[in-house]
């Protein structure tokens, strides 16, 4: 504790009000703990302010624009379709983001969580100091949940500025660029790339590895690649970005491709090569909290760190950087503080890429199942055999189930198609509950729905497909 500063005592303190922190705080309060939450910048964290939510708003706006401009297949023609970008931005910010973030603040208050605005730093194993402008206050705590999130990685040769931007810059561009180069064809690069490609920008994506969106199976990402190409976008794989030079309102990128040095020019360069945990910002060493060799906080299955009174959740702990993972870990940590036996189990953790088509995966892929020593088979049902998808004119995709050979237990799912993120939910439940393909096949699915494709895939897995 700092001399001359009277410490306020807290029971459970949560640091960071993102999808990890605010959910942990509410659950801890529901379990009867006296909870305070410290937030330095914005309620809802990266996800609600500069991540999941604003990106999905722009994806929707861009999709509506493109559909309205090209309705010919439905026998409709449209002229003079225009976009007022400032109104699009205003809608995204003031009607979507603001609505969601003010909801978080309201929920915290409703659950009697004390809100402390400021930046928290550990002073020792059970003390934090919260700094806000010229003021600072010391607090001791019985338990803490650290949920202070992550930030974009800035690479050498690409200093962030007006023309070289990160994902937050990409969400808030002052104009729709004529040309945009994206370094990193991962989840953010492909999602925001699809926004601008739909708005008519000439998008070039430089991806360092050999596959576009490498965290999803190749037969899924190929479909997205095809859609990008149909929008005039260029995707260059095995392309390592080397440096950038800003020339007035243009910027030139140098990259290496198949041993050759090449350049490409654009109005903006968006760098989306991953995110790093904010574990270097809170004096973890003073609290006795150990990190792994990649800078993530080491935790046990309840989220407990090497300091048993401090739990860590979300983007600062190992595993995929996903909002729903952060929230899940937050609930487990809150329960652990209340003495419950809850532990994390990532067996059915879903992951989605909101491109066209959407890509969704949960549980095992064929390869990961084999690596885990499971004897599995895969069954793929194409959306071409699904009436709803055909009527939507969005049928280039499939549902793939990964099931055990012996007793058809569902251990994985991959979906490429319209609303894959939502269609996946019943299979995630099946994996979580240890159900088999029969459970899905025997469940009556409304017709015509996209979800029928999972029933069809399950029937195919059982050797009795109706629609293929
Ligand atoms: P954060 O959301 O980063 O929240 C941490 C909070 O802690 C912040 O509010 C920060 O201000 C605060 N903080 C940090 N340090 C301190 C301190 N010292 N004192 C007080 N407060 C502090 N994930 C998905 O699952 N689905 C998506 O569709 C998706 N889309 C995304 C799109 C983009 C463009 C980006 C960038 C990310 C996206 N993500 C998505 C990832 C998702 O945003 C993160 O996984 C999620 O926000 C992590 O939650 P968190 O609570 O761990 O941290
Ligand atoms: P990412 O890890 O998904 O993709 C980064 C890509 O950049 C990789 O494909 C990598 O090979 C490539 N790369 C790295 N260095 C490079 C270089 N020098 N030149 C060219 N390519 C290079 O990271 P991204 O897209 O920044 O997203 C960060 C995190 O945010 C992800 O882990 C993801 O989980 C989360 N997120 C989740 C979303 C969702 O759930 N829908 C949406 C957006 C983000």
Automatic annotation (TrEMBL):
Task: Give one GO molecular function term.
Answer: dihydrolipoyl dehydrogenase (NADH) activity
E.C. number, please? 1.8.1.4
In which organism is this protein found?
Answer: Facklamia languida CCUG 37842
Question: What is the protein name stated in its UniProt record?
Answer: Dihydrolipoyl dehydrogenase
Binding of NAD(+), residues: 184-191, 207, 274
Q: Which residues form the FAD/NAD(P)-binding domain?
A: 11-330
Organism phylogeny: Bacteria, Bacillati, Bacillota, Bacilli, Lactobacillales
Give the family, as the similarity comment puts it.
Answer: Belongs to the class-I pyridine nucleotide-disulfide oxidoreductase family.
Which Cys pairs does UniProt list as disulfide-bonded? 47-52
Active-site feature positions: 447
């Amino acid at each position: 504790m700092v001399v001359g500063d009277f410490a306020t005592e807290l029971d459970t303190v949560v640091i960071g009000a993102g999808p990890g922190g605010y959910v942990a705080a509410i659950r801890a309060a529901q379990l009867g703990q006296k909870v305070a939450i410290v937030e330095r910048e914005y309620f809802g964290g990266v996800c609600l302010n500069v991540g999941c939510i604003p990106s999905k708003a722009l994806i929707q706006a861009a999709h509506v624009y493109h559909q309205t401009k090209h309705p010919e297949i439905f026998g409709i023609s449209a002229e003079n379709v225009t976009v007022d970008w400032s109104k699009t931005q205003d809608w995204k910010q003031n009607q979507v983001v603001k609505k969601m973030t003010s909801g978080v603040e309201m929920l915290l208050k409703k659950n009697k969580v004390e809100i402390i605005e400021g930046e928290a730093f550990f002073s020792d194993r059970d003390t934090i100091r919260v700094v806000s402008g010229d003021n600072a206050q010391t607090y001791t705590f019985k338990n803490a949940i650290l949920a202070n999130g992550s930030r974009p990685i800035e690479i050498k040769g690409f200093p962030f500025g007006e023309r070289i931007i990160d994902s937050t810059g990409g969400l808030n561009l002052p104009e729709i660029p004529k040309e945009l180069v994206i370094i990193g064809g991962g989840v953010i690069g492909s999602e925001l790339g699809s926004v601008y490609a739909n708005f008519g920008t000439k998008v070039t994506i430089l991806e360092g590895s050999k596959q576009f969106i490498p965290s999803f199976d190749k037969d899924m990402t190929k479909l997205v690649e095809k859609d990008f190409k149909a929008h005039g976008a260029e995707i260059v794989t095995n392309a390592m970005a080397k440096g950038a030079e800003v020339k007035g309102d243009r910027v030139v990128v140098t990259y290496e491709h198949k041993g050759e040095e090449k350049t490409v020019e654009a109005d903006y360069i968006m760098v989306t090569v991953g995110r790093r945990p904010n574990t270097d910002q809170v004096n973890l060493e003073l609290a006795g909290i150990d990190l792994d060799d990649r800078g993530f906080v080491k935790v046990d299955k309840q989220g407990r760190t090497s300091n048993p009174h401090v739990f860590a959740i979300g983007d600062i702990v190992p595993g995929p950087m996903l909002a729903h993972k952060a929230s899940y870990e937050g609930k487990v940590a809150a329960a652990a503080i209340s003495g419950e036996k809850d532990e994390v189990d990532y067996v059915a953790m879903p992951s989605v890429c909101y491109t066209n088509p959407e890509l969704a995966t949960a549980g095992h892929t064929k390869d990961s199942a084999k690596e885990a020593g499971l004897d599995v088979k895969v069954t793929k049902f194409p959306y071409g055999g699904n009436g709803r998808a055909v009527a939507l004119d969005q049928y280039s995709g499939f549902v793939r189930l990964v099931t055990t050979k012996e007793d058809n237990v569902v251990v994985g799912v991959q979906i490429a198609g319209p609303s894959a993120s939502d269609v996946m939910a019943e299979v995630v439940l099946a994996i979580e509950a240890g159900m088999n393909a029969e459970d899905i096949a025997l469940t009556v699915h409304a017709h015509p729905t996209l979800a029928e494709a999972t029933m069809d895939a399950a029937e195919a897995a059982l050797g009795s497909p109706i629609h293929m």
